[in-house]
Amino acid sequence: MTAGRLQLDREAFLARYWQREPLLIREAIPAFKPPLDAAELAGLALEAGVESRLIEYRDQQWLLQHGPFTEADFNRDAPWTLLVQAVDHYVDEVAGLRRLVDFLPQWLMDDVMVSYAVDGGSVGPHYDNYDVFLLQGEGRRHWRVGQACDSRSALLPHRELRILRDFDCQQEFLLEPGDMLYLPPGQAHWGIAQGECTTFSIGLRAPRINDLLSRWADQMLEGLAPDLFYRDRQIEPVSRAGEIRPRDLQQVAERLRVTLADLDRQGDNRWFGEVVTEPRYDVPVEDGELANQRALLAGGACQVELDAAGRVAWQETSAGVAVFANGQAQEFAATVLPWLVQLCGQWRLEGQALAAALAQPDGSQLLDYLLTTGCIYVE
Ligand code: SIN
Ligand code: CO
Question: Do strands 180-183 and 23-25 pair parallel, antiparallel, or not at all (unpaired)?
């Protein structure tokens, strides 16, 4: 599941480019062999459970169609692009591309989207709200990088597509297989295929602050005693009937601040791990299959693999380690840490390490929890 090593000075990249400036990395992966070809990608887009889109530019209009597709959908005369989301969930070698950016926290990883375009195919000038590493697969794509954008940037009228009305080209690059273009959030970009080509987009996440705040507040509210009421012992006599005075508001704000500070001191940050490990798609764990997997594990299975779609993260706590798995949280003793790090880093646990984990109650509880949440499977 390895893709070769990214030819990049990580420290210099983080200091100078990350979330600031685009960067072209020529031969990011020397002699790159794309882990998936156009026909395999098209095959995925025929499947009902796979999220795919087709964008076509016809008669000066951008047209969008959602998958699943049929073979006939790929016979078009106007330039078109097929985009398949989360290909890393289905193809291990594509999941391996996530390792290219393993110097970033794993919880920041979103998915690897793969696109195929015919000559002239493009999804139009746009910007994304997250960082993306665009790795050229087969063929060549001409990229134009434009201005910094945000929600005030004018868009063309379209029900679903967010195509920029104006594009101010500032840099241009022709990407060949194995070249990579890093784009920070909000940077306008426009890639046009030169001949047929495939592009692997390693996309990171940018959780909405609204969502973070709302989940944080939910957890804060959970921790709050229901019989806590507002009081104001220093209240002052009113001089104008009906007024809400600045000092009243200050008192309320102060009371809320003190309450939040108290809650914060309890130090329960569970909400964050839960949010960032929420799976992209539902993970149904079927009872029969779970029983099967448990039996395999109890019978001395030789290896446990991290599911490519599973999201696992952990956090040290005063009691040990909180483990987040597909949106759930559970506390374990700190002894599970080496197994967790190995699972998250190597995506598998086998041999002596697996035997040692199974021999300890904490280790086997951890594996059972990861099985129940659909994050690992036994082989
Ligand atoms: C593409 O692969 O064609 C588009 C990727 C992007 O612009 O985000
Ligand atoms: Co984009």
Answer: antiparallel
- Taking CA atoms only, the protein residue closest to ligand 1 atom 4 is 123
**Residues 190/167, Cβ–Cβ less than 8 Å:** yes
- Alpha carbon distances (Å) from 336 to 275, 305, 322, 333, 362: 22, 16, 10, 6, 7
Give 341-358 pLDDT, tens digit per residue. 999 999 999 999 999 999
Q: Distance between alpha carbon 50 and the CA centroid of its chain, in Å? A: 17
Ligand 1 pocket check for 191: Cβ under 6 Å: yes
- The pLDDT of residue 1 is 43
81 ligand 1 Cβ < 6 A: yes
Q: How far is the CA of 80 from the centre of ligand 1 (A)?
A: 12
How many angstroms is it from 89 CA to the middle of ligand 2? Answer: 20
Which residues lie below 8 Å from residue 347, measured CB to CB, with a gap of 6+? 1, 305, 306
| C-alpha span between 128 and 200 (Å, rounded) | 15
pLDDT digits (tens, 9 = 90+) for 137-191: 999 999 999 999 999 999 999 999 999 999 999 999 999 999 999 999 999 999 9
Torsion sign across C-alpha atoms 205, 122, 187, 181 = positive
The best mutation among 52, 144, 179, 199 to test binding of ligand 1, ranked by most ligand atoms within 8 Å of the C-beta, falls on 199
What's the pLDDT at 223?
A: 87
Collapsed DSSP state (helix, strand, coil) of residue 136: strand
Q: Which CATH superfamily is domain 10-204 in?
A: Cupin (2.60.120.650)
Looking at CATH, the fold of the domain delimited by 277-378 is given as Malonyl-Coenzyme A Acyl Carrier Protein; domain 2 (3.40.366)
Rg (CA), the chain: 25
Ligand 1 atom closest to 128 (CA)? 8
Other Cβ atoms closer than 10 A to 291: 10
Cα 177 from Cα 305, distance rounded (Å)? 30
Confirm or reject: Cβ of 187 under 6 Å from ligand 1.
no
The first and second tokens of residue 226, run together, are 């229901």
pTM of the complete model beyond 0.90:
yes
